[in-house]
Structures are given as C-alpha cells and as structure tokens.
C-alpha cells in the first residue's frame, strides 16, 4: 500500500479565502506531482518537483503555487480561492533512482475542493 | 509530444462479461506503459505495467500486452465483477524529458449484477 497522504479529503471554502492542500509521502521519493482532475475524469498535471527546492509548472496553467522545502512534503496553495478552482486535486510521487523507465507513480486519495 | 488515447466511456457490462478497453499511444523512443484504476472517491492505483515490447502485464485477472507494431496496450479481463466498476486510465512514461507520466482521458466501467 502506498504511503502518500493528502489532507483534507474534502474542503468547502468561501471565495477569496487562502487555502493550502497538504501532501506528504514517507517513501523517500524525489519526484512529486499535483494533478487536477475535472468532473469528466481527465487528469491535468499542474505542478511537479524533482526534489528539494525544485518546482515546475505542468501542462495546465494553474493559479496555485507549490513549495518543496522537505523531500516528504509538497503542499499546494491557493492565495485567493474562486469557484473556478472547484475540482479534485491528486498528489503523487515516484522514485527517480535506478531504472526510471518503469517508474510507477503512487497517488494519494485526493482532496475534493469546493469553492462557494 | 507524447499522447495516450483511450476509448470513451462509459462502458456498461453485465457481470461475467468479457472486457476490452482500447488504448493507443504516440511517443518517441521506448516508453513504459501502465494501466491505473480509480475506485469511487479514491486516488489512482497501479493495476499493471509493461516495460518493453511484447511484455504482458497482469493483475487481478486483468491483462494488457505491449504491442509496439500497433502502438497499443489494450486492457482485457475475461469475466468482470461488480467490484471492477471504476475508472481506468492508460498511461506511458519514459519517453519525454523527466520521465513524466502521460495519461489518457480515462474510461468509466460500470458492471451490473
């Protein structure tokens, strides 16, 4: 079973509030990712990190920001939440050591965010 | 760039029916291929994988064969159960810079008793 955790599982928050979605993994993985999953199920990569102090933007532009101060922790922050941010957010990690050609990603259970 | 195309759902089957979910990909080089499953309210779990041409990944009665000549990785199961109802994602990695996973759009499977 994967050791990657997301909190909270569900969050309902008002427009304009600042929020941070937490993601932690205990597997020592260097790579971590944030995906946004729309109601049609498709996954969109919004942020990723190769390791401590590394953050990159993904394929889908997002108003959120991320930080990677510790290997195990990769929080996502929205400075001012809007209804358009309502979505499911999935965090994942993978091991970049050794043979990267068959590296699988491990996913957290997700945070379902609703902005009202 | 890399891309993965899956058959659109939902796919609705009766219990014990045969399942095929088609997946084709476009990539440079020799990617690894994966099927992930997402049960309601959960994150994604790896179902099976294949790392080179002609490899067959299998798990929980599901199978998929890496077909380089047709750039395909179709998911099959001989007899589905109600508990298989979920969303299935085909993905590849290893072809692009940074070995990022590229996902297909997902296929929802509904199995009726």
Notable traits:
heterodimer; A: 116 residues; mainly beta; 7-stranded mixed sheet; 4-stranded antiparallel sheet; 0% helix; 45% strand; globular; B: 113 residues; 6-stranded mixed sheet; 12 strands
How would you characterize this protein structure?
Chain A has no helices and 11 strands. In chain A, a hairpin with a 6-residue loop joins strand 5 and strand 6. Chain A is globular and about 40 Å long. Chain B is mainly beta. Helix content of chain B is 0%, strand content 50%. Chain B contains no helices and 12 strands. In chain B, the strands form 3 sheets. In chain B, strands 2, 5, 6, 10, 11 and 12 form a 6-stranded mixed β-sheet that branches. In chain B, strand 7 and strand 8 form a beta hairpin. Chain B starts with a strand and ends with a strand. The mean pLDDT of chain B is 92. Chains A and B meet through strand 5, strand 9 and strand 10 of A and strand 5, strand 6 and strand 10 of B.
